[in-house]
Amino acid sequence: MALVAVELRHFHWPDGSHHLDHVWECVCLVVGGIGVAIRAHVVGHAPADTSGRNTERGQVAAVLNTTGLYSVVRNPLYLGNAFMWLGAAMFVRDWRIVLVATMAFLLVYERVVMAEERFLVEKFNGPYGPRAAATPAFWPRFSGYVRPNLPFSLRNVLEREYGGTFGFVAVLFAFEIGGDWFYKGEFLVDPIWVGLMGFSTVAYLTLRTLEKHTRYLHVEGR
């Protein structure tokens, strides 16, 4: 984050155009949105207590996911995270930030993936071996796609993913405010971003309240 703060001092609008600035912001939102959509697809079709859905109990995997996006890549949730990291890094408009973010992502998630795959090998030694051999670890191979066993559950996605999505929007909002401050020398609040951040905040608080104090978002068997 210290490096981001330093690089924001050199923040600029493309060709000095606020219009092009908005275009680039949309590109970054789309890139990050792809990551959000990937995670939503995975979580929306996931059964309860499966790999990638870990809690304070540690690694949890009652069954092995081999359908949906898990049929084309072994770690689809982290693929989604990669797009979200990339979208945030691109927002700063500095290739060095993109490079550092990519290296940091690989360093962090390589260890996480290795630990999770050791756990899965121990728990599903028979079926996991052929699955790992036939499915790429990170780059999807869509020719092997298998339809999910369970229907998509929007409530499951809302319950599990609201925090990460809000965090992504909040990071971009902070970059937007900080970047414009350094570029224009004044505190600017773009109405579009105010609306997006306001909506995200209301959605976050609403969904968090529903998750913590009701069972409305709970889906049996998810």
From TrEMBL:
Stored InterPro entries: Phopholipid_MeTrfase
Tagged with keyword Membrane: yes
Locations listed in the record: Endomembrane system
Source species, domain of life: Bacteria
Pfam families, sorted: PEMT
UniProt membrane topology term: Multi-pass membrane protein
A GO cellular component annotation in the UniProt record: endomembrane system
Keywords: Membrane, Transmembrane, Transmembrane helix
Gene3D superfamilies with a match to the protein in the record: 1.20.120.1630
Main location class: membrane
Membrane-spanning segments: 82-109, 162-182, 188-207
The protein's name: Uncharacterized protein
Organism: Rohdeia mirabilis
